[in-house]
Structure formats: C-alpha cells, structure tokens
Design brief:
The complex is a heterodimer of chains A (134) and B (93). By secondary structure, chain A is of the alpha+beta class. Chain A contains 3 helices and 5 strands; from the N terminus they run βββααββα. Chain A is globular and about 45 Å long. Chain B starts with a helix and ends with a helix. The chains are: A alpha+beta (134), B alpha+beta (93). β5 (105-111) of chain A pairs antiparallel with β4 of chain B.
C-alpha cells in the first residue's frame, strides 16, 4: 500500500490528541502503529472549563470536593498528577509517558509551538468536547 | 476500495470533515489511506469560539472511524464517473 496519511512525519514532534471521550492530551509522539495506537512522552491533559475567575473562587471548595470525588471516579485524576495550569481557564494535568489505544483516538494534530505559546490558556473558556457517538 | 480511490483524486482540494463528536474541521486534503484516515493541512475548526481546543493546530490526522461526513467542493464531484463506478462495484466487477 502506498504511503498514506501515516504519522511518520509527526514522530518526535509535539502533538495534540483528541480522544473519543473528548479529552485533549498534548505530548511528544514517540511511536505509533497501523491501528493508530500511539506512544506519547512528557504528556499532559488540557482540561477545558467554562467557569470564569469570580465563580471559580466562589466554587473553590465545591471544586475541591468534586476533585476528590473525581479521584474516586477517575483513576487518572489523582494527586500524583499535579495541576500545572492555574485553577482558572484551561488546567493542565501532568500525565507523563502514555500509550493511547487507537480505538479511542479521534484527531491527532501537529501542535504549532509558536501558535501555542501565543495562546493565553488562562483566558480560554470552552465546554468540554462531546464524546464520539458511533 | 472505490471510496479510497475517490478520495485520492480529491487530494489538494479544500474539504470540511465533520466528526462524530460534532466537531467540523476544514482544510486542504493532504492524503488518505485504506482506512479512510484523512490528513488535512491548513486546518481550522469551523466553530472556533465553541471549540478552541485546536487553535494551535495547523495540520492534523483524523482517524477514519470517527468521520461522520466529508463535505466536498461541488467541482470535485464527477457524478457520471461515480455512477459508473458504483454500478460496476454493484455488479461485482
């Protein structure tokens, strides 16, 4: 089969992955295969929310409580994953080395570092992406 | 195989790919493979205010399994050719 849209050109580059459950994971592509299984290094998740700063402060305790609840429900969100973005706008959860199964991948985007550094993540607000429904 | 060849002929054209999570991405078709995975260049998300998740992405790979629609440029569609090809396929040749 002729060379299709493989991910060869993205190896060792920073990529942004959107998963079928609507998560956005950014990391360095280390490997991939036919089924789009991918290996990401130095990855982190970007968690989008619509909360503004004022509401955020008011909802801080509530937020902490839901964070705790979240830890019970989602194993990826425990205290071993420090939050590196602030408590407002887009939060960044450190994940480290990750393997994502191809079935769960929607989009793999090449992250333009210049464009990305010009973004002010603390000011970005968005609803979480909807999950893929087949 | 028919649609794989069909999409290969559309390489270089501007298309909009709508995904099964309602995200729509517009860009120039760069390549396609047998799974109908699609690579787009110079991409932009159609509703960027609602979906700022890909603001810093200019080139992307879309997994074929999550594509709901591909919107094609009208001039890229040769209906006669498609008719013939689908009839041939239906006959099993």
């Amino acid at each position: 089969m002729s060379a299709g849209p493989g991910l060869e050109s993205l190896v060792d580059q920073t990529i942004s992955v959107i998963t079928n459950d609507g998560r956005n994971i950014v990391g360095v592509l280390k490997g991939f295969d036919q089924a789009t299984n991918i290996i990401l290094d130095e990855s982190h998740e970007r968690v989008y929310s619509t909360k503004d700063t004022v509401k955020q402060t008011k909802a801080f305790h509530l937020g902490l409580r839901s964070l705790l609840l979240g830890c019970l429900l989602k194993p990826h969100c425990d205290f071993a994953n420090p939050v590196i973005g602030g408590m407002e706008g887009v939060q960044q959860l450190v994940l480290g080395l990750y393997i994502i199964r191809g079935d769960n991948i929607s989009v793999v985007g090449e992250l333009d570092e210049d464009l990305d550094s010009s973004l002010d993540l603390s000011k970005l607000r968005a609803h979480p992406l909807k999950p893929v429904i087949h | 195989m028919l649609f794989f060849s069909y999409f290969k002929d559309l390489v270089g054209r501007e298309v909009t790919v709508e995904l099964k999570n309602d995200l729509a991405i517009r860009g120039t078709l760069h390549s396609v493979d047998q799974y109908l995975n699609i690579k787009l260049e110079n991409t932009r998300v159609v509703d960027q205010d609602k979906y700022p998740h890909m603001l810093s992405v200019r080139n992307c790979f879309i997994r074929g399994s999550v594509v709901r629609y591909v919107q094609l440029p009208p001039e890229g569609v040769d209906i006669e050719l498609l008719h013939d090809a689908t009839r041939r396929e239906a006959r099993g040749g």
